[in-house]
Design goal:
Layout lengths: L2 H13 L27 E7 L6 E5 L9 E2 L2 E3 L6 H13 L1 E13 L5 E12 L13 E5 L11 H14 L16 E11 L9 E7 L15 E2 L8 H10 L7 E12 L11 E11 L17 E5 L3 H13 L5 E3 L1
């Protein structure tokens, strides 16, 4: 199997929500230091859970600053646990309920220092926490019909609840759960795409994918999908904009960069200070904002660090175009 066959096989895996081991990084200027949970990064999990009446699970807060108010089961991840382990623990501690995830519903982020994973989940056991079981985690739990008056800790959860109902009624992306592959830093592996439309409507669009050229000794790894490390001072999704700016600087001012969403994410977290990072596999769409000489093909690249690869494998191209045009990806909101 040649390198391009391996590449297309890897793209197929990412489209399915699977992961790939992170072996190298692009545009890493400084010596990379592993991130550490609650020191360099903060991850939060939250659960949207419904019963058969489409009532949503809520917990009453015990924290001083929001005492007595209601919110979704949510909390910060602890050192040495995976994202899914944190989800199970938080829901059990705050609501008394055992659950299993259906899918990640949304990722919200403000840079590496604050990333929240909202899950749509379902009950598998346990019982609602009562006031007799109140502790420092919560005062009680109950099902909310979304209409009865309830003093909320924050109204941000209303859109999350709506998104959960929408997904249950008509899933618009395939169910996704974190893939257990360790990573030392927060990074992004983009499927960075460019589409050129044929003048003849009977012909299919051409699809291009940005690749990073070989930098290592193992030729079987290259060409490969670029992996960009996130900057501590910027949102996680900014990493791909930096990639575009550096690789296509002469065209950057005329380009629109659209973060379509997340195709999958990789995290382990069980070795504190060594596997606290996350790799987001994303889908990114690039297009010209105005007419130009390169309009018949992808933007010109500056230097030889990257190359454009035309996806001629028809089934793979069709899958990628469907994901781009249909918006069937996990949403990510940079706050």
């Amino acid at each position: 199997m040649d390198s391009l066959d391996i590449l297309e096989e890897n793209v197929e895996k990412i489209l399915k929500g699977e992961g790939l081991e992170v072996k190298e990084f692009d545009s890493a200027r400084d010596q990379l230091q592993p991130v550490r949970l609650r020191k360099d990064v903060c991850y939060i999990v939250a659960a949207v859970i419904f019963n058969s009446k489409e009532e949503v699970l809520m917990v009453q807060e015990a924290k001083t600053e929001c005492y007595g108010r209601w919110y979704l089961p949510a909390g910060r991840m602890e050192g040495g646990e995976s994202i899914l382990e944190a989800l199970h623990r938080e829901v059990k501690e705050e609501a008394g309920i055992d659950c299993q995830p259906i899918t990640i519903l949304l990722v919200q982020e403000q840079g590496p220092q604050w990333v929240r994973f909202i899950f749509l989940a379902e009950v598998t056991g346990g019982s609602l926490k009562t006031t007799a079981e109140a502790d420092g985690e919560s005062l009680q739990a109950q099902w909310w019909d979304r209409e009865s008056p309830l003093p909320l800790r924050g109204r941000d959860i209303l859109s999350l609840i709506t998104a959960g109902l929408k997904y249950l009624q008509n899933p618009w992306f395939q169910a996704l759960k974190p893939v257990d592959i360790p990573c030392q830093v927060i990074c992004q592996r983009p499927l960075l795409t460019f589409v050129t439309s044929r003048s003849d409507s009977s012909e299919e669009d051409r699809l291009w994918l940005l690749l990073s050229n070989s930098k290592g000794e193992d030729a079987s790894l290259h060409p490969h999908l670029p992996v960009e490390v996130s900057n501590k001072r910027c949102t996680v999704t900014w990493a791909v904009r930096r990639l575009v700016k550096e690789s296509m600087s002469s065209s950057y001012s005329r380009l629109n960069v659209t973060m379509c969403g997340i195709l999958g994410l990789q995290h382990n977290g069980r070795v504190l200070g060594k596997t606290d990072g996350i790799c987001f596999n994303t889908l990114v769409f690039l297009e010209f904002s105005e007419e130009g000489p390169e309009i018949g093909g992808p933007p010109l690249l500056d230097g030889d660090c990257y190359r454009w690869h035309e996806v001629t494998n028809q089934p793979l191209r069709a899958k990628m175009l469907q994901r781009i045009k249909g918006g069937s990806v996990l949403p990510v909101h940079s706050l």
